[in-house]
Every structure is written in C-alpha cells, then in structure tokens.
C-alpha cells in the first residue's frame, strides 16, 4: 500500500492539498477520521482579516507582502505573497469546477458577511448567495434588511440578529424588519415543530407547492431594494440551485447565512471537495485515523517512512511524502494538557507563545490561547501548493 503522497486529515486543508497532488499526477491517499470542522463552518474562506498583532486588515495581499519583515516566522512570510495569490486563484477555480462558486471583491479587498448571530465578520471568499457587505455605508446597495423569521425554525433567532445588526455602526441607520414565514401548512408533515432543523426544511421545500408558498410570502413582504437575509436551510449540493430558482421567481436579492451546527454551507464545501477528490482518482480511508508512524534519519533530516492506522492495524501505509492536516483542538490534531500543548499522533514539536499562565483569562473572549494554537498548527502543516 504505497503512494506518492498520503494526506492525514479530511478537512479543507487536507482535501485541498490532496486534490492539488492528484492534479499533478501523484498517486494520493487521504486518511479521514470522519466529520471535519467544516460541519461547523460558515462556508466562507478567510485569507487575512487581522495581523498576528491584532491589526484589522482590509487588503490582505499588501499586508502579506510586508510579513517578511514584520512577521518573518509566519507561514505567509515563508511562502510569499505571489505564491499565496496563485494558490487562492487555484483554489477558487477548483471549487467552481466542483460546484461551489466562491466570489471575492474585484480589488482583492476583504468584505464583511452577516453571521448567524447578526454580527459582521471580515472574510475574503464567500459563496454565491452571500452579500459582500462593504466597510462603509456608501458601498452597500440596499435600503432595508429583511430577516426571514421562519416560525418553525429554532436555529435562526431574528430578534437577536436584528439587535446585533443595529448595534453595529454600519447598520445603525438601516431599517431592519422581521418577516414571518410559515411553511408547514403546505408541507404535509406531521412532525413536531420543535424538532425541525435545516435538513428538514430542505426536504419540505423540494415540494413545488411548499416552494411557491414560501416564495410568495417573501414577495409579499420584501422589495427589490431590500437585502433579504435567509438562513441556510436549502440543502448542500442542491442549495445553490434552490436559491437561484428563488431569486428568479421573486426577483429579490438574498443573503444566505449559516445557521447553528450542522452548517449546510460548510457541509456544501466539504461535499464538493470530497466529490472532486474522488473524481480525480484519490483513495480515501474514511472513518480511519493514524495511530503511529516510523521515522528514520537521512541527509535531509528525520523522515517519516510509514504509518499505521486504527482500521488497518498491522498493515502499513508508505509514501514518498506525507502531509499533516489534522487540524487543531476541535478535530484532535492538537491536545492541551495542564502545562503544554502536544501533537498526539507523532509527538511533533509544537511552538506556543507565552507562559502557561497566559493561556487563559477570566474574560471569555480572550484570544491568547487561540492565537497560540493557530500559530502552532500553521507551523506544523506542510501546505505549499506551488
């Protein structure tokens, strides 16, 4: 069981690097432990929203170009702005082929998206039906924000969204209205309304009668000058097709917002990546995980030669190269103990910043540990597309 490349991890970094290897003609296998963090993802892709020191960034590429002098140990500094730009272009084109249209501003500026809580989050690439909200009022082309308040849906609280939007300077003078929407009267469903999740509504709206009832209610309460914020409830693969149909039927502008997990917009990206990986001939060990590896010394340094997995037990997997994309704490790619952060599979060195006493704070939003873990993760993963 020998390969040119074995990728460890089935998240965005793992699938993306594996797909790139397959495109280069390399025999590639991917060890995937199961659901990735994409199930909890917004479906947008960040490039650089703030520097390691916390300075907000509106134009990522000029900021990255300065990393070689400002943050020389950062992975962006080691790769360089030109390689990162090419990698982003390749990723965008690959995702478009896979069925998920990702958009960015023409001037390579970050944009803001509305989160499921009604806050604004800076990002670089967003899906087709995510409104790219500018950083000042003049950049935005809508008179009102209309929130679809689906009566039977518990994972999108329009009152909270409206309160948080009004609290932002960008929306303080923008009328925000809540539009009650009912779907069950034409769905034929007898399920309890308290048990409905995103996937349930996707099934309901596959009915033509339910779709027309849903769309007509929106048309009755919104106009072409409104930005209609709708929770992502239309499915993964078929979700964009549904939104396109809804747009053509109503003539309105929609802004799809991810909901509480599971996030259909994140799953949409994962399914597209997995489908593209399989289409290109990749071998996937799904539901498996690496348990150990064998290293040797050479002129190039310490080399990983082979690995063992939980499901294959005594059978070894060998490759000319390995890519570690096992993620952070959420996916068990890193583990925190009382006095250290460890990489649990191979025991690799992990670089953290600050003393152990700095890893926590009474303030819930404290970011020291998060920044430390992300820095450690970036330094561990070999992810050079060019």
Automatic annotation (TrEMBL):
<keyword id="KW-0560">Oxidoreductase</keyword>
<dbReference type="InterPro" id="IPR036188">
    <property type="entry name" value="FAD/NAD-bd_sf"/>
</dbReference>
<keyword id="KW-0285">Flavoprotein</keyword>
<dbReference type="InterPro" id="IPR003953">
    <property type="entry name" value="FAD-dep_OxRdtase_2_FAD-bd"/>
</dbReference>
<dbReference type="InterPro" id="IPR009158">
    <property type="entry name" value="G3P_DH_GlpB_su"/>
</dbReference>
<feature type="domain" description="FAD-dependent oxidoreductase 2 FAD-binding">
    <location>
        <begin position="4"/>
        <end position="368"/>
    </location>
</feature>
<protein>
    <submittedName>
        <fullName>Glycerol-3-phosphate dehydrogenase subunit GlpB</fullName>
        <ecNumber>1.1.5.3</ecNumber>
    </submittedName>
</protein>
<dbReference type="GO" id="GO:0004368">
    <property type="term" value="F:glycerol-3-phosphate dehydrogenase (quinone) activity"/>
</dbReference>
<keyword id="KW-0288">FMN</keyword>
<dbReference type="Pfam" id="PF00890">
    <property type="entry name" value="FAD_binding_2"/>
</dbReference>
């Amino acid at each position: 069981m020998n390969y040119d490349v074995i990728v460890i991890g089935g998240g965005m970094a793992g699938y993306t690097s594996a797909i790139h290897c397959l495109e280069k003609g390399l025999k590639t296998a991917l060890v995937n432990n199961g659901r990735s963090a994409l199930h909890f993802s917004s479906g947008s892709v960040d490039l650089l929203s703030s520097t390691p020191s916390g300075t907000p960034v509106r134009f990522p590429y000029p900021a990255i170009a300065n990393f070689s002098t400002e943050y020389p140990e950062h992975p962006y500094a080691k790769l360089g702005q030109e390689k990162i730009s090419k990698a982003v272009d390749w990723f965008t084109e690959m995702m478009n082929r896979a069925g998920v249209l990702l958009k960015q501003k023409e001037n390579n500026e970050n944009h803001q998206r509305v989160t499921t809580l009604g806050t604004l989050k800076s990002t670089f690439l967003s899906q087709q039906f995510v409104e790219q909200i500018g950083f000042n009022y003049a950049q935005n082309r809508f008179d009102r924000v209309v929130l679809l308040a689906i009566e039977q849906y518990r994972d999108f609280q329009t009152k909270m969204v409206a309160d948080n939007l009004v609290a932002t300077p960008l929306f303080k003078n923008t009328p925000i209205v809540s539009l009650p929407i009912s779907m069950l009267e034409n769905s034929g469903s007898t399920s309890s309304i308290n048990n409905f999740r995103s996937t349930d509504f996707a099934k309901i709206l596959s009915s033509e009668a339910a779709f027309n009832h849903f769309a007509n209610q929106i048309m009755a309460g919104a106009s072409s000058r409104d930005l209609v914020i709708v929770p992502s409830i239309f499915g993964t693969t078929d979700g964009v097709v549904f939104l396109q149909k809804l747009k053509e039927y109503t003539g309105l502008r929609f802004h799809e917002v991810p909901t509480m997990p599971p996030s259909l917009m994140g799953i949409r990206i994962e399914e597209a990546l997995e489908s593209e990986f399989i289409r290109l001939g990749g071998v996937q060990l799904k539901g498996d995980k690496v348990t150990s590896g064998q290293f040797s010394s050479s002129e190039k340094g310490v080399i990983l030669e082979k690995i063992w997995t939980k499901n294959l037990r005594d059978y070894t997997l060998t490759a000319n190269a390995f890519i570690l994309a096992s993620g952070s704490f959420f996916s068990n790619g890193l583990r925190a103990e009382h006095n250290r952060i460890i990489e649990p599979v191979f025991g690799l060195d992990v670089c953290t910043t600050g003393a152990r006493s700095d890893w926590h704070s009474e303030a819930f939003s404290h970011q020291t540990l998060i920044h430390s873990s992300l820095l450690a993760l970036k330094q561990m993963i070999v992810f050079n597309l060019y």
